[in-house]
Amino acid sequence: MTIPDHKQINNKDLSRREALLWIGKVGGSAAMLQAAGLFGLLTTAPAAAQTAPVKLQPLTKGRKSVLILGAGISGLVAAYELGKAGYQCKILEASHRAGGRNFTIRHGDFIDELGNPQFCNFDKDPDLYFNAGPARIPAHHTAILHYCREFAVEMQMFCNYNKNCYTQDDNAFGGKAVRIREYEADTRGFFSELMAKSIQAQAKLDAPFDDIDKQKLIEFCRAYGDLSSDFTYEGSERAGYKSGGILSPGVLKKPRAFADLLQSNFWAGAMHFGEISDQSAALMTPVGGMDKIVDAFLSRLAGKVQLKAQVQKVQLLPQGVEVSYWLDGQLQTEQADYCLNCIPAQLMAGIENNFPADYVGVMRQLQRGKLSKIALQAKERFWEKEQIYSGISWTNQDITQIWYPSHGMFKAKGILLGAYSWDPAISDRFSAMTHKERIATAIAQGAKVHADYGKYIEQGNSICWQRMNHMLGCGAVWTEELQKTSFATLQAPVGRHYMVGDQVSYHPGWQEGAVRSAWYAMESIQQQEQQKQQVAV
Amino acid sequence: MNKWILGCLLFCVSVQAETFHQNAQYCLVCHGSNAQGNDAISAPNLAILPDWYLSAQLQAFQSGWRGHQTKDAYSKEMMAVAQSMSADDVKRAIGFITSFEPIKAVETVAGNASHGKTLFQTCVACHGMAAEGNEAMGAPPLAGQYSWYLIRQLQAYRGGLRGGEDKDARGAVMRQIASTLQHDQDLHDLVAYINTLGPANTQLQAKTVQTTDTKK
After folding, report:
1. CATH says B24-208 is which class?
2. pLDDT tens-digit map of A428-447
3. Which of B29, B209, B215 sits opposite A469 (nearest CB)?
4. What's the predicted TM-score (pTM) here?
5. Is A377 found in the same domain as A463?
């Protein structure tokens, strides 16, 4: 997934005059397409190719063993499916817990960051949890949802986009936070007005638009921006009434100046976040935390997951794979017919192996994904007093986002996401801080969005994925070039060894990539088995 | 209530002890399963380093001589880890790391080794003819270390990220010498020459690939 980098685009501050000139040039389809492209409306990818869930044929004869390295989502899926088909599976997990980056923190949980170990200090309460890794599932991620359905994981809706949340930008409106509904109503209003008037000013549109199309296009502008009958924008109820609206007539808010709206960088990326196919409504999340999915797998994999088993060596054998690992200070060695390996590639590159050089070469080139999240426990759900229930506020400060929980309305306390950054430079800044400094930074920056923010925050936790033990990154970073030349190399088996996980998908950082990567590898194993049986016959 | 808090604290401490301190393989997550380093995450080769140097550097990280500068992101990562280690952790880590055989790092830099040999004559007095290191001079072995790591350290000395602390007398010497290597090409040439030196063990990668009998 590529998240628009609104911070970069912001460097191109448009003056009002430039903006008018630019929009005034609209005369035909090409210009409009360019405008749409600039506004990030054409960049969303179509839904991922849908394939049916993996269906492995039960093993009919013989005993086949599989060692799975890593108990993240891909490893759990593999152990579950292969186990159902009669393969003997064992998962070796280096960490003290299963789930990988599917990590929900609650009271007392250990957060194993290198050099910065923490315990989750939330109150003990079923509603006070935080999804430090994946937090939302879009409807087209049918593979991970397949397991939610199969295991009857209770789901709820997750809100990514709430017009009552704020956008705050130090360069706009004197740094004051503005409701997203006001910002959007006004920008769309002005944008539509300029568009409608410039189309009207054209005697004729370029082919293939005829006069009827021209009229429809003008009407489209009116509908899009909530324009008055003379195609001017005079404010809209979409921005929320200034007063009245129920027992007395609604009074519109005065629109903000377009030039001021353009000063904010919100239009350059964040405003269109909810248009991204993976981020758009409606999204879902398991009730009680994302790790309910992990729990559901684990309850079906009793005795198959060995925690705190750190892999030391992976050796390809002519008819299988041998894995050595540290357990309780001792080196253990096991052989298996197959190995599915979801150790982060950048760490696997440092583990002794006898892989072909080009295979390891790809691992060495994958970069650590640098993402960080900060969770804050609020002693009072102050956002509800501001008519915010769920959703995301945006800021151009390092914290980037504030999330309000999609559950637990009207309860006493709540867990906020106080920062979420996927910009490597920002994550580097957070990871270089002590845990205390991170929380203090999150509170100080959040105070520009909510007055008295610090007054409500009791405590917090920080998760810098690039510093988490046994992971050292979140989502492998592939360059487009490396994907072209080397994705197939890493995806293909080497003998009986497969690299799996979201890192071996075009969807790194999403559970969907992890599940589908495991399915891909298991189908390949099945093919290897079937071919052998045919040879034997 | 007090009892409850005490109970909770004890629980926390015991969980931490179990998950954190007993993990003698902690270093290998970043530095590779044989402590040979991992260029994918910019972790240097520790397997070639003697106990006295590991000890000195852990002390440098713990006291903030290395890693305290904002620009020095890689050292900052190690500083956080070092500062979270107790004296016992340090002892155990050094014992564990020095139990590995030295392995030569995969080479990643090309340069003019014969020019490098000339430049290396300045280094010989402290680091030895074969770049094998010398405890008496406080000079670590360089042979077998990752080229990018050596270059980055030379740049760090040159740029004042390393060796600028008053108490870091050995670092100060190195800083002065590094400042004479003004051109990056000189650094490449020098490291290209160091690449030609020991340790005796072959590269892990080269050694193991030859034994594979499985074709893709």
Report:
1. mainly alpha
2. 999 999 999 999 999 999 99
3. B29
4. 0.88
5. yes
